[in-house]
Amino acid sequence: MRLACAAEMLGVSVPTVRSWVAHGVLQAVPGEKVTKVSATSLARAVAVVREMQEGETGRRRLARVIDALRDRDLLEQAQEAARESEDLLEYGDNELTELLRR
């Protein structure tokens, strides 16, 4: 996905998209002469941005997006570990979130 298109979908500027790539929020497509963003990482970021409050900008928005993506990754890892465990326990999202906070 071209940076301009990614910026439009996220409601941010192209320099912000470049910053998010540099911070690891968005993944660049390897091997491209012109930087492009992977559709998968863009979809994840768009979902988080849509859940956020309006009016958050700049570094505050970047920090919130990073935190939200990291939290989702941790939750997915915990759910995967529980599924693979011999002692399979069924937890809902709220229970797993509470366990991760301990």
Summarize it.
The protein is mainly α. Helix content is 65%, strand content 0%. The mean pLDDT is 77.
Compile the SSE list and pairings.
Elements (H helix, E strand, L loop, with lengths): L2 H8 L3 H9 L16 H13 L6 H27 L8 H9 L1
Helix pairs in contact: 1-2, 3-4, 4-5
Explain what the structure shows.
This protein has 102 residues and is mostly helical. Helix content is 65%, strand content 0%. The longest helix is centred in the last third of the chain and has 27 residues, at 58-84. The mean pLDDT is 77.
Beta content comes to under 5%
User: What is the string of SSEs from the N terminus onward?
Assistant: HHHHH
Unreliable residue runs: none
- Tell me the helix content: 55-70%
Helix count equals 5
Query: What spatial form do the alpha-carbon principal axes imply?
Result: globular
Question: For the CA atoms, what is the radius of gyration?
Answer: 16 Å
Q: How many strand elements? A: 0
Mean pLDDT: 77
Distance between the termini: 39 Å
Class from helix and strand fractions: mainly alpha
Largest sheet: none
What key attributes describe this structure?
globular; 102 residues; mainly alpha; 0% strand; single chain
